[in-house]
Design goal:
By secondary structure, this protein is mainly α. The protein has helices spanning 6-28, 38-60, 71-89; strands spanning 65-66, 69-70. It folds into 2 domains: 1-35; 36-92. It is 71% helix and 4% strand. A two-stranded antiparallel sheet has the order 1-2.
Length: 92
């Protein structure tokens, strides 16, 4: 039964990729993802991850605090710092 959902998931993933690629293609007149560098993809993924953490913090409103920072804010800080370090390590 689970195998029957696989084509639908692939179609949904393809549709999401097309939606992400549509706006830059309309603006630039050509596809930009094939020309993206590793650092571009890395920073895009880092931005998406940080956005997800911020959204989770807004939805769940954690009550625990450490140094007057919520768990979500600490997670954002750690992910951001690891992302910046990873950007310096990323081969150009």
């Amino acid at each position: 039964m689970a195998g029957s959902c696989l084509p639908q998931r692939r179609a949904a993933a393809h549709l999401a990729h097309d939606a992400v690629d549509l706006a830059p293609t309309v603006i630039c007149g050509k596809a930009i993802l094939p020309n993206a560098h590793n650092s571009d993809l890395y920073l895009s993924a880092l931005g998406v991850l940080l956005t997800i953490i911020f959204m989770a913090g807004l939805l769940f409103r954690p009550r625990m605090e450490h140094a007057r920072l919520g768990v979500d804010s600490i997670a954002v800080l750690v992910v951001y710092l690891v992302g910046v370090v990873g950007l310096t390590i990323l081969p150009s």
